[in-house]
Specification:
By secondary structure, the chain is α/β, with parallel strands linked by helices. It folds into two domains: about 80 residues, Rossmann fold (3-Layer(aba) Sandwich), CATH 3.40.50; about 30 residues, no CATH class. Helices cover about 35% and strands about 20% of the residues. The protein has a seven-stranded parallel β-sheet with strand order 3-4-2-5-6-1-7, sandwiched between helices. The longest helix is centred in the N-terminal third of the chain and has 17 residues. The protein starts with a strand and ends with a strand. InterPro entries: DNA_pol3_chi, PolIII_chi_sf.
Length: about 140
């Protein structure tokens, strides 16, 4: 199990979603199924739109969980990846649940006080579970 905290120096919330799109693309190009755990409907809609329009020349086949939970890239809220070996990108404030059932979790950190504090809490939570989360500076 691998848990990475990607740390951006940007303080804009939009930067976090842009980073998520870049990481989705990287994992998808590597042939890995990707599951993006969104915090609410608004964030899910924003991610859906960004995956379509961020770089129009790069189509990434994605779907909402309710429409196709087996798509190469799935966006969901309060649900869980159905594909084995999924890379879970956690956009929620809470730590990803049931991490012991995953191969990889990615947490995204940007420089807002609330997100920094919650990311520290999540980092410690994963450590208490016996994992060794890694910090990736961008």
């Amino acid at each position: 199990m691998r848990i990475d905290f990607y740390v951006s120096q940007d303080s804009q919330p939009q930067a976090r979603l842009t980073l998520a799109c870049r990481l989705v693309r990287r994992a998808w190009l590597a042939g890995l199924p990707v599951f993006v755990l969104c915090s609410d409907d608004a964030q899910l809609a924003q991610m859906d739109d960004m995956l379509w329009h961020l770089r129009p020349q790069f189509f990434m086949p994605h779907s909402r969980f309710d429409d196709n939970p087996s798509a190469p890239v799935v966006l969901g809220i309060d649900c869980w990846p159905v594909q084995d070996n999924s890379v879970l990108i956690n956009l929620c404030m809470q730590p990803a649940p049931r991490v012991d059932q995953l191969d990889r979790v990615i947490e995204l950190v940007c420089q807002t006080p609330e997100l920094l504090q919650q990311s520290r809490t999540n980092f410690l939570h994963y450590r208490k579970l016996g994992f060794q989360p890694q910090r990736v500076e961008l």
